[in-house]
Inverse folding.
DNA sequence: CCCCCGTGCATTTTT
DNA sequence: TGCACGGGGG
């Protein structure tokens, strides 16, 4: 058993009913939740009656694996850890009668946007009356449901940045009816096609538990302990899901309000602040001793929170030594930044006795890491990225899965459209016509029978036979995938000829093996959609699968800050901490969003154990300073200028500032690829 | 009328 | 990297 400090032990061995663990960054949050699960099992609690809930599959898997390895007995064999979403989908499948959804298909954000686009196309008058794109409509809809806010409030917050002047009110009033029509049409389409989107998964369970004491009773027999990680990221909808369990199970929630970075999807740290008020028989345990980072790393992190108008009362104190000051490195371009980081990692690796996996690179956005990945590939630095496009979301996989989806749920219009337009000569117009006829069928059998006539000709015969073939093999998911691929592979190879051999072809054996893990088509489709992926050296790999031998190799981790919660590394690079990024230029008019960006940076800084290296772009720093001094000269009534760049007033004795330029001049050969001086010595002045 | 393909463009953060 | 748009071809 691990060593716990006094407070950690109090949490792990808590004897009361419900506990909230308020744990700052690096204070042993994960360790405590693992310790708690281990302790409960050791105390004789049936592992099956413990449910661990997290926000990412990665976190869930890690916790479960570590509990299992810390126990010698097999008592932990049935311990379950899932994301909120996959837990709910499992419950729906496990109790089909309880939640009334026997045939359904979980749709991903791409599908949601696709459906909304269709809806907007069918309701042109309403769509034209608003200046909101389908994707944003989906965001508004999701936000409203996750936060349980009215459409008016959701619109105000999402579209009008929370403004409440008369003009805004009128505009909202004006567009609201049209939006309501579009959203209702979207809901009707979901119902008709038996779709559940991500939010529906939670809503189905939460609503049922709320309304039906019987459902509560049945679930109470299955769960004694609910352990929730990252409590500060739960939103009101998730609270609705948790709340019924207060009466029927023990809650053990772990969180840190300074690390709340998901308010854009409705997270509300009231769930942390109001915990003891909302939950009877509950207590709070604080963890404040930081074991992860050196004091120098914590100093800058603490400073960042202190400069916030929000009072966090988080002064992290390291249990370790002072350590080296963080480095603040000025770079002139993204390529220079990427080369600098590569050099540094290679130096640490060859001279500094560090492994690649001692390094973590954090970015505000996925997109920004592209040049870095290019340089890593060029320099042969092995890396993994988290987040990004999921395996099941890539186009070629979706093509194959579309047939599985229509066999599983013949009302699945999106999948029908994808499957039909996949074939040469069938475009959107004809496919849509076919779909209208197809969804009149009562079941898959009738569908199989009528397909040839609906489509007609050779296409009809071919597609009908294929559908029938998969319908017959649907009991064997792996065979269904294999047969589907066989039938589609020629067309796939042509459609994706640009990168078929190098990239996409190899995904299908992976898909087949994955399919073999599921007992039914429905489970495969649902769980597969919720499955996370990571990428190894740019190639997507299923995160939870043990398919690759690469799995435990030595890799640098590249991650967005949002995906990096819970991660830590000896050396941590935080990319592009420049004006307009921290905080983001698009958030400047909203104090709440500025403060959320601050917490994003805080999360990033607190990942580092020993070496913290912050990079930033020289030109944007200069632009920021010029703009500042200009506006200060002109008028002095803009007191928030300083706060519009978090590092603006950073005490320089907290860091060591460097310019990559100088490093290069000292003799390091840093190659910047594709940098051609286009001026060619010409001065046009 | 419908389908296909080339070009240009803009890209927060996640289940 | 995906997507919206427009022109050419069937």
């Amino acid at each position: 058993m691990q060593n716990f400090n006094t407070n950690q032990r109090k949490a792990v061995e808590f004897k009361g009913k419900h506990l909230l663990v308020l744990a700052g960054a690096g204070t042993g949050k994960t360790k405590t939740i693992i310790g708690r699960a281990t302790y409960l099992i050791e105390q004789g609690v049936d592992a099956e009656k413990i449910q661990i809930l997290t926000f990412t599959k990665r976190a869930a898997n890690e916790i479960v694996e570590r509990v299992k390895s810390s126990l010698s007995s097999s008592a932990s064999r049935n311990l379950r850890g899932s994301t909120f979403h996959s837990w709910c989908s499992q419950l729906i499948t496990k109790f089909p009668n309880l939640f009334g959804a026997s045939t359904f298909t979980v749709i991903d954000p791409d599908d949601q946007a696709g459906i909304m686009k269709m809806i907007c196309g069918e309701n042109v008058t309403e769509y034209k009356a608003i200046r909101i794109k389908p994707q944003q409509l989906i965001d508004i809809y999701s936000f409203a449901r996750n936060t349980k806010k009215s459409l008016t409030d959701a619109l105000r917050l999402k579209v009008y940045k929370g403004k409440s002047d008369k003009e805004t009110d009128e505009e909202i009033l004006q567009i609201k009816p049209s939006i309501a029509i579009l959203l209702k049409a979207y809901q009707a389409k979901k119902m008709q096609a038996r779709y559940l989107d991500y939010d529906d998964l939670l809503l189905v369970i939460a609503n049922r538990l709320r309304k039906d004491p019987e459902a509560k009773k049945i679930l109470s027999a299955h769960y004694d302990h609910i352990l929730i990680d990252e409590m500060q990221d739960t939103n009101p909808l998730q609270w609705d899901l948790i709340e019924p369990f207060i009466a029927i199970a023990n809650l053990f929630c772990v969180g840190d309000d300074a690390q709340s970075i998901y308010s854009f999807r409705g997270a509300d740290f009231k769930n942390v602040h109001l915990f003891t008020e909302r939950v009877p028989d509950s207590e709070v345990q604080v963890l404040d001793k930081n074991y992860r980072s050196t004091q120098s790393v914590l100093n800058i992190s603490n400073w960042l929170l202190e400069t916030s108008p929000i009072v966090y009362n988080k002064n992290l104190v390291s249990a370790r030594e002072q350590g080296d000051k963080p480095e603040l490195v000025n770079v002139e371009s993204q390529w220079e930044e990427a080369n600098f980081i590569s050099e540094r990692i290679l130096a640490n690796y060859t001279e500094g006795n560090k492994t690649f996996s001692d390094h973590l690179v954090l970015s505000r956005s996925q997109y920004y890491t592209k040049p870095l990945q290019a340089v890593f590939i060029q320099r042969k630095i092995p890396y993994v990225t988290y987040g990004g496009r999921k395996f099941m979301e890539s186009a070629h996989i979706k093509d194959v899965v579309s047939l599985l989806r229509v066999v599983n749920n013949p009302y699945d219009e999106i999948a029908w459209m994808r499957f039909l337009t996949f074939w040469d000569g069938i475009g959107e117009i004809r496919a849509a016509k076919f779909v209208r006829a197809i969804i009149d069928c009562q079941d898959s059998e009738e569908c199989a029978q009528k397909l040839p006539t609906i489509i007609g000709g050779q296409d009809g015969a071919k597609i009908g036979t294929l559908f029938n073939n998969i319908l017959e093999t649907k009991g064997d998911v792996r065979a269904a995938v294999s047969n589907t691929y066989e039938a589609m592979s020629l067309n796939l190879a042509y459609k994706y000829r640009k990168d078929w051999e190098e990239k996409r072809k190899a995904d299908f054996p992976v898909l087949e093996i994955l399919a073999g893990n599921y007992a039914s088509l429905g489970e495969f489709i649902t769980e597969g959609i919720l499955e996370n992926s990571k990428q190894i050296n740019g190639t997507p790999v299923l995160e939870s699968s043990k398919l690759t031998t690469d799995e435990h190799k030595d890799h640098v981790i590249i991650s967005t800050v949002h995906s990096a919660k819970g991660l830590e590394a000896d050396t941590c690079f935080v990319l592009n901490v420049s004006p307009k990024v921290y905080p983001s230029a698009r958030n400047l008019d909203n104090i709440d969003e500025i403060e959320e960006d601050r917490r994003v940076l805080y999360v990033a800084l607190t990942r580092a154990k020993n070496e913290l290296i912050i990079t930033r772009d020289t030109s944007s720093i200069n632009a920021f300073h010029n703009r500042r001094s200009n506006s200060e000269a002109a008028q002095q009534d803009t007191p928030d200028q300083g706060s519009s760049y978090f590092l603006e007033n950073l005490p320089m004795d907290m860091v060591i500032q460097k310019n990559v330029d100088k490093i290069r001049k000292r003799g390091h050969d840093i190659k910047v690829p594709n940098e051609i001086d286009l001026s060619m010595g010409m001065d046009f002045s």
Notes: Confidence is low (pLDDT under 50) at residues 545-550, 635-642, 665-685 of chain A. Chain A is about 50% helix and 15% strand. The first strand of chain A starts at residue 18 and ends at 23.
